[in-house]
Amino acid sequence: MLCSIFPVFSSLGFINVLFLFAIIIIIGQAQNLTIVAAQNDVIEEDDNPNNDATTNNKNHNIGNNNVLLWSSTGGGWRAMFADIGYANVFQRAGIMGDNFTNFDSVASVSGGSWFSTQLFYSEEFYNQTVLARSPKVLEEFVLQWMGTYYNISSNFSNETLTKCDKSDVNSDDPNYDPDNEPSDNIFDLCTLLEEYNHDWAYFIDIMLTAASTEYGDPNFTSLKMSPTNRHASMQQTDLLIQAALMPNSRIRYNETNSTTGIYLGYDDDEAASSAETSSSQTKLFTVPLSFAVVVDDSGTKFVYGTDDITNDNSKNDDLSGSGLNTYSVDNTPSRFSWQDWSPFYLSPGSNGKITISSNDIIIGDTPVNKVGGFRTPFNGSDQTTIIQAASISSAAGGPYSPLNPSVYAHTFSIGYYMIEEARLATVWRVLAGLAVGLFVGVIIGYLPLVFCKCRDDDENKETIRIIMIVSGVCCGIIVACLTGVYVGVGSILIPTAYDNGVESVYENPDFDAFAVCSQWPFPCGEQDSMIIDGWLVDNPALVINIGHHQQKYGFGSTNSTSNNHTLKVIITNTNQKWDDDDWVHAQIMQYFSTYFNKDVPPGGFVWGPGFYAPYRSPQIFQEYMGTDDIDALIEPIEGSNMTTARLNGITIDNPSFAVYAGQKVEILLLNLNEDITTLVVGKDNVQKYTQPLADMTRHIASNQELVVRVRNFVES
Questions:
Q1: SS3 helix, strand, coil % of the chain, rounded to 5?
Q2: Contact (CB, 8 A) for 471 and 444
Q3: Distance between CA atoms of 631 and 621, rounded to whole angstroms?
Q4: What pLDDT is stored for residue 452 in this prediction?
C-alpha cells in the first residue's frame, strides 16, 4: 500500500502522514469506532420541553452560600455537540434560560471550546441550541452545522485536487498493487490538509465561519474575546479557555538545514547567588504549561501556569506571566535525536522535574542565550479573537508538530520506550538461539534413538545412531543461528523503522502548523512559542475554573464571604467510553491523591496514564481516589450509555493554578460514553458520523432522568 500511495502524495510527505496515524494507534489513542448506543428518549421529539415550569425561570434554589461552575472536556465534534445537548438539559433544569444563566463561569478545552465560544458570543447559536424548543429541533441544528462542515471538506480548488489525485496510480504503474489501492480516506485527508495550508488555526477559522454563517451569525468569527461582546444571556458569566503553552519551540529557516531552538524559562536569582557562571542562573521548563484565556467583567486576560515560579509579586502583583523569558540556541539540528531531548525526561519520565538548568542542554553548538521577556500572545489579551482562542485550545495534533521538539520527543518516546522494553539484548538473542537449537537437536538426534532401542537385531543400528546425532547437531546449529538472526533482525529492524519514521516527520514542515503560533496569523519569533490543545495540562479544565473562582472572590482573605461557599461544579465528560480506559479515569482521579501522583507535590512533575507528555500535577483535593473508588460512585442511567457520579473534596494548595486550601467542592460528573471517534476528518468520515452525532445530541437533550439528576444536584 505504501508503494502505491507514494507516487500520489510524495510532494506532501504522506508516507509521514501514514506513519503518524500508525503511531497514534500504537500509543492507544484515536480509534475509529462505530456508534453503539441505545438512548433513553423519555421526551417525545415533537414535545416542547419549554413547557417545563422551571425552563424560563431562574433556579433560585442554588442558595446564597453555593456557587455553580461548568467545566467541559474536549473531544472534537463529539464534545461540541454533546455540550449542546447538555446545555439544553441545563435549560430544562432551570439553570440556563432566556437572558440568564446560573453558571458563574464556564471553562472548556478543545472541542468544548468550539462550543463555549459560540455559546458566549453568538446569540443565534444560544437561541437555537440552549433554547431549542425540542430535541428534534436540536438534531436538525446539528445536521445543518455538519452540512456546512461537509461542504468545506468537499469543495476544493483544482490545484488541490491535482496534487492529491490518485488516478495516476493504475495497473500500468510499477508501484501498483491491486490489493492495496490508495484509499478514499487518504485522498480526503490530503485534500483537507492541502486546501487549508496544513494550518490548524486557518482550518478552524473556515469551519466556524461556514457554520455560523449558515445558522445566521456571519460576524461571529470576526469578534474579539471581550466581555462587552458577550450576548445578554452570558453577560454575567465568565469564560475560561484552557490551552497548553509549549516549553520550547523551533524556528525553521528555508535556506538552511539548521534551526533555532527557543526555550521558555526564567532567571533564578536564588541560584545566581551561589553560581559560578551566568548560565547556571537560567532554568528552563520541561513540560507543557497551563495557558488560559479568561474573560470576566474586568476584561480579557491571559493566565499562565508559571506564576508561582516566575512572578515577583512584589513588583507585578496583577500581571500573569511576569518573569517568563525566552532563551535561544542557534544551530539547533534539523535532524531528530533521542539523545538531544533526553534531558527533558522522556518516557517513562523517571525522576522528572518541572525545570532543568540551561547547563543541561546538549542541543546546538552555541550556549543558551537570553532573548528577553516572553512576548504577549496575539498582540495583547484584549486583541485576542475567537478564532485564536478556539484554535489554540483545540490543536490536538500539536504534540506531533516538529516545532514543539521536547513535547514531540515526549509523545514518540512512549512508542520508543515500548519497543526498547520488548527488545532483546545480544546476550539474550544468543541464549534464545541456543535454547531453541538445543531443543531441536534433541528432537532430531535423540528421540529416534529411543524408538530404535527395540531393534537390537538391526545391524545398521550404530550407523543410524551416528547419522541421527550428526543430524541433530547440524539441525540444532542451523536452527539456533536462524533463531538468533530472526530475533536479532526484529530487534534491529523494528526500532530502526520507528526511528526513521520519527525522523521523517520531524524534518517535514507540513506538520509544523498542527500547533498554533502564539502570534498567529503571524509567524513566531525568538520571543514567542507554540500553543496547543489544553488536554495536555487539564482536559476537563476544572483546576483553572476553581482557581479563577477563588481569585475572583478573594477566597482565603479575612473578610471574604466566599470562605463559606460550597462550590458546585458540573463536569461534562464528553468521553467515548469509561470502562477499562485508564486515561479517562486518570483525568478525574488526578485532582485527588491517587496512585500515579504519589509523592508528587501539587504542581510537581507528573506523567499520568495515557497522557502524551508529562505536565504539572493538577491535584487540588486532599482525599484519596483510586480506580475502584471512582467506579463505585458511577450511577448508570437506565436505557442510556450515559452515567453520572457525585464527587466531594476539600481543596489543598496548588500554587501552579492559584488554588488555595480549605474550600468545599461538590462535583457532578456527567459521563457521555458515546463511541464516536474524535477524528471526524475527511468528507467520508463527516458523512459517516453526521447522523450519529445528531442522534447523540437529541438523545442527551431528551433524557428526563439526566434533567432530574442535574436539578437535584443544584438544589441539594
A1: 45, 15, 35
A2: yes
A3: 18
A4: 55
Average pLDDT over residues 647-673: 97
Q: Cell numbers for 287, please give them.
A: 513540560
The whole-angstrom separation of Cα 392 and Cα 632 is 36
Better pLDDT: 49 or 653: 653
pLDDT of residue 143: 98
At residue 315, what are phi and psi to the nearest 5 degrees?
-110, -35
Q: What is the mean pLDDT of the chain?
A: 84
Q: Which position has the grid cell 537560567?
A: 282
- Per-residue pLDDT at 461: 64
Count of Cβ atoms closer than 10 Å to residue 59 Cβ: 18
Which is nearest to 220 in space by CA: 97, 70, 115, 98? 115
- Which amino acid type is present at position 285? F
Residue type present at position 623: E
Find the helix packing angle between 200-214 and 135-152, rounded to 10°.
130
Q: What gap in Å lies between CA 649 and CA 273, rounded to an integer?
A: 41
Residue 269 has pLDDT above 60, yes or no: yes
For residue 138, the Cα-to-chain-centroid distance in whole angstroms is 28
Query: DSSP letter at 579?
Result: T
Q: Mean pLDDT over residues 38-61, rounded?
A: 45
pLDDT score of 104 more than 60: yes
Q: Does an H or E element contain 668, and which?
A: strand 664-671
Closest among 83, 84, 94, 86 to 52, alpha carbons compared: 94
User: Rounded distance, CA 462 to CA 459, Å?
Assistant: 7
pLDDT of 34 above 90 = no
Q: Which helix (H) or strand (E) holds 263?
A: strand 258-267
Q: Which amino acid is at 353?
A: K
DSSP character at residue 175 = T
For the chain, the distance separating the N- and C-terminal CA atoms, rounded to the nearest angstrom, is: 59
β-pairing verdict for 66-72 and 103-109:
parallel
Cα–Cα distance, 407 to 562 (Å, whole number): 38
Which three three-digit cell numbers place residue 548? 479563577
pLDDT at 38 over 50: no
Question: Of 137-146, 272-281, 356-365, which gets the smallest average pLDDT?
Answer: 272-281
| H or E stretch at 150 | helix 135-152
Report the distance separating Cα 288 and Cα 404, nearest Å: 10
pTM for this one? 0.85
CA dihedral for 577, 583, 587, 592, sign (positive or negative): positive
Name the residue with cell 479544565. 541
Phi, psi (degrees; rounded to nearest 5) at 353: -130, 155
48 contacts 133 by C-beta, under 8 angstroms: yes
The answer to whether 82 and 117 are in contact (CB under 8 A) is no
Q: Provide mean pLDDT across the span 226-234.
A: 98
Rounded Cα gap, residues 592 and 594, in angstroms: 6
- The answer to whether the beta carbons of residues 549 and 567 sit under 8 Å apart is yes
SS3 for 56-121, per residue?
CCCCHHHCCCEEEEEEECCCHHHHHHHHHHHHHHHHHCCCEECCEECEEEEEEECHHHHHHHHHHH
| Tens-place pLDDT, residues 615-637 | 999 999 999 999 999 999 999 99
Q: Is residue 74 within 8 Å of residue 575, measured between CB atoms?
A: no
Q: What does the radius of gyration of the chain's CA atoms come to, in whole angstroms?
A: 29
Pairing of strands 238-245, 103-109: parallel
Q: What tens digit of pLDDT does each residue of 470-521 get?
A: 666 677 667 667 666 666 656 677 788 899 999 999 998 989 999 999 999 9
Q: What angle do CA 144, 702, 44 make, to 5 degrees?
A: 95
Q: Are 598 and 637 in contact (CB under 8 A)?
A: no
pLDDT tens digit sequence for 590-619: 999 999 999 999 999 999 999 999 999 999
Angle at alpha carbon of residue 565, lines to 564 and 567, rounded to 5°: 150
